[in-house]
Description:
It is a single chain. The chain is of the alpha+beta class. It folds into three domains: 4-68, Uridine Diphospho-n-acetylenolpyruvylglucosamine Reductase, domain 2 (2-Layer Sandwich); 73-185, Uridine Diphospho-n-acetylenolpyruvylglucosamine Reductase, domain 3, CATH 3.30.465; 233-336, Alpha-Beta Complex (Uridine Diphospho-n-acetylenolpyruvylglucosamine Reductase, domain 1), CATH 3.90.78.10. 24% of the residues lie in helices and 28% in strands. It is built from eight helices and 20 strands. The strands form six sheets. It has a five-stranded antiparallel sheet with strand order 6-7-12-10-11, with no helix packed on it. A four-stranded mixed sheet has the order 1-2-5-3, with no helix packed on it. A four-stranded antiparallel sheet has the order 13-19-18-17, with helices on one face. The longest helix has 19 residues, at 308-326.
Amino acid sequence: MQVQQNISLLPYNTFGIDAKAEQLLVVTDKAQLAAIANNSTLPKEKHIIGGGSNILLTHDVPGLTLLNQLKGIELIKEDDAHVWVQVASGEVWHEFVLYAIDHDWGGVENLSLIPGTVGAAPMQNIGAYGVEAKEVIETVTAWHWEEQKFLTYTNEECHFGYRDSIFKHELKEKVFITDVVFKLDKEHSFNTNYGAIQQELDSAGVKELSIKAISNAVIAIRSSKLPNPKEIGNAGSFFKNPVIAKEHFEQLLQEHPEIPHYPVDDTNVKVLAGWLIEQCQFKGIKRGHTGVHEKQALVLVNRGGANGQEVWELSEEILQTVHSKFGIMLEREVQIW
Length: 337
């Protein structure tokens, strides 16, 4: 094992924050995890980076940072209607989506162009355009540091919620996700009702629906709305869309009849965090080296040379302002390190 000392994490996070890892180790083989666990010279404190697209580094990272580069996609079984595909956690998520589409396996096309690795899919229960990862995840396998063995968690055992799972709570920092098994469809059902997918399909002149057409539409929409981290540092949507009580929503609706919303159930309504932030005049704002993107108020950006603390302070200002105006406390989707 080649452990690197005092290494900059600048290349490994899409926010472009130049924080340092006390120790860094690249993981390319699952067998390394047992060796790491049994190596008494390595720090017990461990942190895992996949694509680095959902973290904000507010300080140097102590202990051992593990860079997940586990690779592999394998069809493990199939029947007339479905395939079960095991994907290593270090695979790039969007590349897996394209792989599935190339093999005519449906279920993840609405999740095209989401940044990050496959290992983040169950952790965050990633979602977009009416689809969440929990709908296609069969099992998640992870190395448990304390028990020193691989454990497999069923979909139910993952306790999936909105951008949430057991891996962000009970199992936080206790496991290293190694593989995810997805159950994908041979017989396709299309979800085009959320956002502007149907409008994009119509604009593209699509006459016959396919998973490839939906993927292309999602890619076009995301590309038009979200900044490319290679051009300006960011971690995508910084805040979750809040779910509020129906009574609270109806009060807001009286003052703001144009508020965009989606019913969740009989008692709760989801409202759009980006709209709330925009109403507070943060869209396009600049704060030193950081700011809010001009086209998407959900996205905080590094305009060049920002440190994580600057970004965090801006996010805190947004949280407090939205709460003061709407009585809604937003929650950060990005993990704060």
